[in-house]
């Protein structure tokens, strides 16, 4: 890893040495994420053994293990017993963490982009009014788009946003959550429902899959800090590329 001046190890060391009040294991996590985002570590690449990484970075093996455990929990890395830790090729979405598609892809070294299917302004349907707790006739924006990672189709997304939460229909470019954050209306919590389905002909065509292939459907209802609903989103994912994970405990 040392021979290349822009090797992952050089990049990670530079980030570890940056001034920060974060604990060392969190700084290592950020450094590893940065190396992935800059494509210095790519899908299916193996990390050095934990003992070697600790020696190369002059930090404790316990710190390295704690950092890697966190990234495994997020789905950024995958641990293969007897083989080591690898950059995950499948996308693992933490069902308990409210992040955008773009944020998830960039954290895994993938380049997100969108293809618009439809952008429109209108009034709520009865179903949207019930879910978003809006009065009949309330204005909403609808965003229908294909989501890609490195030009690979990942997700078909149909989002409805309360119009008062965005300055205009054109405010959304790459990331809807970025636009909502700029407007001071990014969701801080959400209710999500996951279900399995078989892709219909239209979904399969858009996702470059076959009709009847396994897919995942996710409904998300996002809320502001004051309890108001801001978004209702239905998304359809290719089942061969996406996993949803959640941490459970007994308390």
TrEMBL record:
Q: Which Gene3D superfamilies match?
A: Chorismate lyase-like, Winged helix-like DNA-binding domain superfamily/Winged helix DNA-binding domain
Listed PROSITE patterns: HTH_GNTR
Keywords for the protein's UniProt record, in alphabetical order: DNA-binding, Transcription, Transcription regulation
A Gene Ontology biological process noted in the UniProt record is:
negative regulation of DNA-templated transcription
Q: Name one Pfam family in it.
A: UTRA
Entry-linked SMART domains? HTH_GNTR, UTRA
- Has UniProt tagged this entry with the keyword DNA-binding? yes
User: Sorted alphabetically, which InterPro entries does this protein's record hold?
Assistant: Bact_HTH_transcr_reg (IPR050679), Chorismate_lyase_/UTRA_dom_sf (IPR028978), Tscrpt_reg_HTH_GntR (IPR000524), UTRA (IPR011663), WH-like_DNA-bd_sf (IPR036388), WH_DNA-bd_sf (IPR036390)
Output the Gene Ontology terms for molecular function: DNA binding; DNA-binding transcription factor activity
By its UniProt entry, which CDD domains does this protein fall under? WHTH_GntR
Domain annotation HTH gntR-type: ranges: 22-90
Q: What is this protein called?
A: UTRA domain-containing protein
